[in-house]
Amino acid sequence: MKFTVNVECSPEEARRFIGLPDVTPINEMLVQEMGKRMEQNVALMSPETMMSSWMSIGTQAQDAFLRLMSSSTAGAFGAGLKPDR
């Protein structure tokens, strides 16, 4: 025998029924604090400074990748492997 029970309730009602704590005030406080900190940090940096810091990270990652590829190919060819042509 199989039967289905549909219960219509809000997420708040379901949370209370299951016995979960209400974390809404804590969540709102954390979101507000994160918003304040983001505003402070963005206000400290000009758009030019932000872009230059982001771009330097990108070029550093690209340089590190190129060094990794160069060292791996140098190691492979130094071990007597010949490149495919």
Task: Write a structural description.
- There is one protein chain.
- With 85 residues, the protein is an all-alpha fold.
- The protein has a domain at 9-43.
- It is built from 3 helices and no strands.
- The protein has helices spanning 11-18, 24-44, 47-78.
- The model has no long low-confidence stretch (mean pLDDT 82).
The total count of strands amounts to 0
Mean pLDDT: 82
Give the helix proportion (percent range).
over 70%
Question: Structural class, from helix and strand content?
Answer: mainly alpha
Unreliable stretches (pLDDT < 50, length at least 5) are none
Counting DSSP H or I runs of 4 or more residues, the number of helices is 3
- For the termini, the CA-CA separation is 69 Å
Largest beta sheet, briefly?
none
Shape: flat
Q: Strand share of the residues?
A: under 5%
* Elements, N to C (H/E): HHH
Radius of gyration: 28 Å
Features:
single chain; 85 residues; mainly alpha; 3 helices; 0% strand; flat
Short description:
The protein has 85 residues and is mostly helical. The chain has helices spanning 11-18, 24-44, 47-78.
Topology record:
Elements lengths: L10 H8 L5 H21 L2 H32 L7
